[in-house]
Design goal:
Two copies of one chain form a homodimer. Chain A is of the alpha/beta class and 434 residues long. Chain A is 31% helix and 17% strand. Chain A is built from twelve helices and 13 strands.
Chain lengths: 434, 434
């Protein structure tokens, strides 16, 4: 689908952009792309508003005037982690529908760009349907964002490449440190994110150098797509230790046992959606190794939030694509598209010497809303299920190429902070917690 | 003490360098400095040997020929984390003394450079005494190395600046991510290393921007030098949350309660020296906050090994000083010094526009061996003990200045791996585990 073919009537009004779900290293680069492109369409786009804390803030008319931010700040967003507008994990309820359209109408919002994961695309889809139902002229475009890389249709998700680059570099560095002390049997366990899918854990395998030697970490990778088998895991660790006395394990926080329980998750620790709070998989494996293998030293680490916030080590490819999808969203909206999400399409024929290039396209929101894209079964090692195949390396290697230089002040990265000039409220306050 | 004043007779033979204790981002830069400087002294230094796994490998004659490594590899050591020679935590026993001198004599070792922390300086001191006792002509120079910054006399320790730079940048990045979702009361806890001292945890405070706003993380810093008081901690968190709904806590793994127990340490998990394996302080505080403060979301992270291995984000100042102390060790040894450790002396008068410069000097090994330098009591906040004063900021800021560019291949840092050509054994094998 290309932007020239639309027959929609010209629309003019304000653009509202918001961020939703967990942050990534590059979700602000997408925001910058939206702002920068919106400035190119002054016939259609009058003001550029940022909605604070996603749809939850929008219901409360919590808007800031993005066109009043300095150019320096917008440029700084290309390298700033976190989600500068704030995010939410709020689900739009039937009783919010009327209010939402009131807010949009009161501020003459005609273009709505929602940057988020598969849950957020569902919210965007609902808003699009709602506007159509009520006859309110609105163009809604979703933009993918997640380190988990689990959004359907798009070749990959902005945020993923930078997270993988950081994880793989960290594995390489930790392994060098581990090897310093690995005179005897040593097991190093690193827990990474990925509640439902193994894309991030698989990404750690990029740490293996070309023509990987046997001892190149990581040696075992545990994905949520593979049911955890304690005996197979212990045997796999023993096999690696027999060969080289050092075993580096990467485990996704979302790995489950045969009963469907998350490894090490505490059943009493439940988040606001009733999901268990994860993050015990690494410690669980540590205890398993200690209890089942004699004479071994084990250490477990957990990257946590740092793996999605290390913008000083973002992938240039990822940053560029994050900007690209933001700009594309605005172009598509102005061209008359609505109810769709921007996707990245790998364009092998257009690739330069590296053989890699992408272009943007659109997909209907209801094809991606709430859909989770698993790690392909065919890419999981057929023998032991603790490795991934060359198909993954070929897929993921282009996504971590290039470094994104960040500015420094006083020896630390200088990140951008929005001044956040508030847009005046036009309606009564509204309590989303009611 | 300067290198020109010595009256020692000229000595000629082989140089042996080894690394001991936990690795840092820059302990290989020190190794590179030793190799590069040794090549300048061909009248005195015949061969350059690397001892694998510290004194433990040396007793086993486990030597590699460092002069046969390529220039590219040695240059690569300036940016490679881990300890390329391997390390040990082995204590020299009386029954090893005879063997040690046999090994040194068999390989005509006349210069011995030991890179390590305060325990390792004790080993260096013993070797120096032993050689003197037995009339074996040997020059022993210790070189400081530790991310903990707890070695006495030296102004600071190579390895510390890079660890602090990484920790402070990570705090700044995590806080940006945390703030994205911190609509309600949110507590973020980051556990850092530092078994005995709070230098690393204090370093996190550099993340506060100049003219720090109230909301600048970290808000509370817990050092091992301050006895943990549960009530004071909970109240401090509540105070921060009342002001801004977001509280970022940095805790050293070495914090102890009034009974002298490490927070969250598992009494059944003891390492080979009988020390408890630490690393539960963050999780312990998480549970405390959840149990004592209603309506709050808490997340805990632990940087682990990554904080001492992130060479792609090393401080240029730290790398340069790591090389400097390595070179100085060789110069001092060739000039006739022995039984001493290289120290960094802050040279305020020589400082350029930044007001910061260092020079090297020597201190007798027995003044630093096994001595732990605590974080100064006068630099700890007098009111709540959860902050550090401007004196620390002034002290530590110069140590994190500058970035050390690393080479990349395939999107990841390209680190150096020693080819490790073995030096032929001359003696019978020796079992250090006997």
């Amino acid at each position: 689908m290309s932007e020239e073919n639309t027959q929609e009537p010209a629309l003019s009004g304000n653009l509202l952009v918001a961020q939703s779900g967990g942050a990534t290293s590059v979700v602000n680069a997408t925001l910058a792309g939206v702002i920068e492109e919106a400035l190119n369409h002054e016939d259609e786009i009058v003001e550029i508003y940022g909605g604070r804390n996603g749809i939850q803030g929008i219901l409360n008319e919590d808007f800031i005037a993005l066109d009043s931010e300095t150019q320096q700040t917008v440029r700084g967003l290309h390298q700033t982690p976190g989600a500068a507008l704030g995010t939410c994990r709020f689900q739009l309820r039937p009783q919010d529908h009327e209010r939402l359209l009131q807010v949009f109408a009161a501020h003459n919002i005609r273009f709505f760009i929602y940057i988020g994961g598969n849950d957020s695309q569902d919210t965007a889809a609902k808003i699009d349907e709602l506007a159509k139902e009520r006859g309110y002229a609105l163009r809604v475009i979703g933009v993918p964002k997640t380190i988990d890389n689990d959004i359907a249709v798009t070749d990959h998700c902005p945020g993923y490449g930078s997270a993988v680059k950081h994880i793989a570099a960290t594995v390489r560095e930790m392994a060098l440190d581990n090897l310093s002390i690995a005179q005897h049997n040593f097991v190093s366990i690193l827990e990474v994110m990925g509640r439902n899918t193994g894309w991030l854990a698989a990404g750690a395998t990029l740490a293996k150098r070309r023509n990987a030697l046997l001892e190149d970490a990581p040696h075992l990778v545990l994905l949520p797509e593979v049911e955890f088998n304690q005996q197979a895991f212990v045997e796999a660790v023993q096999n690696v230790l027999r060969k080289q006395k050092f075993c580096f394990v990467v485990v996704s926080e979302g790995v489950k046992d045969a009963d469907g329980n998350y490894l090490g998750a505490n059943a009493t620790n439940i988040d606001e959606f009733g999901h268990p709070v994860l993050g015990g998989a690494g410690e669980h494996l540590l205890r398993l190794v200690e209890e089942n293998i004699a004479g071994v030293k084990v250490r477990a680490s957990k990257l946590g939030i740092a793996q999605r916030a290390a913008a000083r080590f973002a992938s240039k490819t990822d940053v560029d694509e994050a900007v690209l999808v933001g700009r594309a969203a605005v172009k598509f909206a102005v061209a008359g598209e609505t109810g769709k999400m921007v996707v990245l399409v790998r364009d092998d024929l257009a690739g330069g010497p590296s053989g890699y290039a992408v272009k943007t396209d659109l997909v209907p929101l209801d094809e991606v809303a709430k859909v989770v894209k698993p790690f392909p079964a065919a890419w999981i090692g057929s023998d032991d299920k603790f490795s991934v195949g060359f198909q993954f390396t070929k897929y993921a290697t282009p996504l971590i190429q290039g470094e994104n230089p960040v500015a420094y002040e006083g020896g630390l990265p200088k990140y951008a902070y929005l001044s956040g000039a508030r847009v005046e409220r036009k309606l009564e306050r509204y309590d989303t917690l009611r």
